[in-house]
Amino acid sequence: MAGASYSMPASIAFAAAMAGELGWTPLLNYLLTVTALLVAFYVVFRTGANLRFAEPGLTTAQVMAPLPPGLYLMYHVGSHEARAAMLLTVIVPLFYGLLDFGMRRFLGVTAVYFVAYCALFAVLAWHQPELLQDPDEWIMLIALAALMVQLGLIGGFVSELGDVLRRKNRELGEALTRIADMAVHDELTGVYNRHHLVDVLRREVSRAARGDAVFSVCLMDLDLFKQVNDRHGHLVADEVLRRCAHHVESRIRDIDTFGRYGGEEFVLVLPATGAPAARDVAERLRRELADLEFANDAGERFGITVSVGIAVSPRSPSATVDALLHEADAALYDAKNSGRNRVCSAAVPG
């Protein structure tokens, strides 16, 4: 973009040189200067040196850099028409600031452009007093002033719209992140929800069917949880669910998946884990949960126990998530009927 904007006044200058209204030396000097600017900015950005500045985009520098060589070119051109054409192209780099400058900053930059041209006009009038009598020169100066004000206002407005858009996009991204998190996490406990657990189980069943690895499922149920609700209230019961869930989640492997299946039931998926290892994990968690201590609003302390049913996925293409959960649920039922606070395993598939 910078190269294209530099090429426009260069093209006009080349035409002026061909017409004899500009010397070849000023044109060559201009080309060398803008080429050096392009190379310098390219090197700065490619090496990452721009990141050391408070304004990494170097927008101000890129907007202001073309002004001196452009003024130099306009100073050496012979006719009013050629200078006016060059002026229109010299101000093109101002548009680089559309999505970066605020209103005040954009007005400030356009003011610098206008003052710089006024200075050029004053120097030209000093050497050519007849320019002060040329109405076209004054019309161009007034038109430039009006154009700079309009560019400043419109550019600042566009920049502010860009800020609003970036803020809205950031807020949208944060909202989408929250929605995505809510889609897979249980609102009460913060662990994974049933939907995500079923997705994980489907993937593990598919892997096991290919013969990649077996995995185990632990279906965990807090014993006599209805009594906790009735005796201590829903708020205390919710806290029991949260603490139990966080305790289990903090004591499993990164590759394991733990979540709330519904009510006071939780599911723990143990990839690459056979029945003996799964039972060891379940027994350890059962003992740890039994050691937790809770308190109600009156300060009365109580504990909770958990029953666990374990099922191991068979290496069979016909295996399904529902069948596996049914086996774990049957094992959990055995644990409940055997006195609760214990771990039972389903028959290991052949």
From TrEMBL:
Question: Could you state one GO cellular component term attached to this entry?
Answer: plasma membrane
- Give the GO terms filed under biological process for this record: cell adhesion involved in single-species biofilm formation; negative regulation of bacterial-type flagellum-dependent cell motility
Cite the Gene3D superfamilies for this sequence. 3.30.70.270
Its domain of life reads Bacteria
Note the PROSITE patterns from the entry.
Answer: GGDEF (PS50887)
**Membrane spanning segments where?**
27-45, 82-99, 106-126, 138-158
Q: EC number(s) per UniProt? A: 2.7.7.65
Q: Which InterPro entries match?
A: Diguanylate_Cyclase, GGDEF_dom, Nucleotide_cyclase, Rev_trsase/Diguanyl_cyclase
The cofactors it requires, by name, are: Mg(2+)
Show the catalytic activity.
Answer: 2 GTP = 3',3'-c-di-GMP + 2 diphosphate
Q: Which GO terms describe its molecular function?
A: diguanylate cyclase activity
Keyword set includes Nucleus: no
Report the top EC class in one word.
transferase
Q: Which residues form the GGDEF domain?
A: 213-348
- For this UniProt record, give its keywords in alphabetical order, as a comma-separated list: Membrane, Transmembrane, Transmembrane helix
Q: Repeat among the record's keywords?
A: no
Q: Which NCBIfam families match?
A: GGDEF
Q: What is this protein called?
A: diguanylate cyclase
